[in-house]
UniProtKB/TrEMBL annotation, chains A, B:
Coiled-coil regions listed: none
Keyword Transcription: no
Any GO BP annotation: DNA recombination
Alphabetic keyword roster: DNA damage, DNA recombination, DNA repair, Metal-binding, Zinc, Zinc-finger
Protein name (record): Recombination protein RecR
Entry-linked SUPFAM superfamilies: Recombination protein RecR
Domain of life: Bacteria
Keyword Manganese: no
Cited Pfam families: RecR_C, RecR_HhH, RecR_ZnF, Toprim_4
Zinc-finger ranges (C4-type): 56-71
Span of domain Toprim: 79-174
Family recorded in the similarity comment: Belongs to the RecR family.
Length: 199, 199
């Protein structure tokens, strides 16, 4: 009964994460009623992005050029390489820290049951890069999950075998957290890994 | 530092209602990582919808044709006309009830302070339609808000002046609601408007 094109739009919007039938409907009506220009612009940029954004040949992050802006930058420290699971993780580290080295984006984590092995994560590319000898420290910033830890373990071995020092992010009590509400695993880890208070 | 096109995409996604910087980022990465085809399809349908969907000349609902499918349908009862504020309201009534009449979509409600008067809601079009004499009953289904009620009042006068019977949706305790938790206004209204229990 409704406009077929409108139904198509509602259906197409459901491809977005966390958007169900009701939100898609609300979005479609919002765009039609109040944001025609924004909608047109979104359609344009989206088509471009889907067609042009590929992976950086060097770090596997998203990039519209063969080499991403970061890998191509001459001002980054080529001796430090930080390995992350996703582009979102890279962005989080880039925004939160003063890290001036380079990144390598796995686009996933080791998960043999899902058929995700070293090849799928581009670890051959990483191994080759470590063998080039430019990288001195491999900062492993995978997520502190079971699969992330397994991946970290694998990466550390990969680095050591090539004479590169592997490090990983410190685990412990989050800043601003209250001990009472910190989960047991984290608290136990933070307690065991306590550090000297320096003067 | 990030791909400019990716940043443009994240920015463009923020036009969607309820989508901020963080969600937009998550959506962009999701589309790039897992839903390229869906993203392409969305871009295509969105561009089409923004360009082609206009308002039905008769009911003001969204339509890609001059007359929407519903207004063009020969199987609907032309004596009943239901007035709603938005296309979403029309859809809700269409999905929930067995209503077989036609609709008129105001695309808003009377709100003099925002410069929304009878002309903006297409009430001249509605008045003209009521004068044609085909409509016998005008079902006013505006929202039970202050502005919606004012609009309903205006519409009822408009109908009466043209010999059309105005009706409105019943207000009362919602089905499945518990009296204890129903707001006072609704409860008082439902109590005052109590109806005979028929055998």
């Amino acid at each position: 009964m409704s406009t077929p094109l409108l139904e198509q739009l509602i259906d197409a919007l459901k491809v977005l994460p966390g958007v169900g039938a009701k939100s898609a409907q609300r979005m479609a009506y919002h765009l039609l009623e109040r944001q025609r220009d924004g909608g047109r612009r979104l359609a344009e940029v989206l088509a471009q992005a889907m067609a042009q954004i590929d992976h950086c040949q060097r770090c596997r992050d998203f990039s519209e050029t063969p080499l991403c802006a970061l890998c191509a930058s001459p001002s980054r420290d080529r001796h430090l390489l930080c390995v992350v699971e996703t582009p979102a993780d890279r962005l989080a580290i880039e925004q939160a820290t003063g890290f001036r080295g380079l990144y390598f984006v796995l686009q996933g984590r080791l998960s043999p049951l899902d058929g995700i092995g070293p090849r799928e994560l581009g670890l051959d590319l990483l191994a080759q890069r470590l063998e080039e000898g430019e990288v001195h420290e491999l900062i492993v910033a995978t997520n502190p999950t079971v699969e992330g830890e397994a991946t970290a373990h694998y990466l550390a071995q990969l680095a050591r075998a090539r004479g590169v020092r592997p490090t990983r992010l410190a685990h412990g009590v989050p800043l601003g957290g209250e001990l009472e509400y910190v989960d047991r695993g984290t608290l136990s880890h933070a307690f065991g890994g306590r550090v000297e208070i320096r003067e």
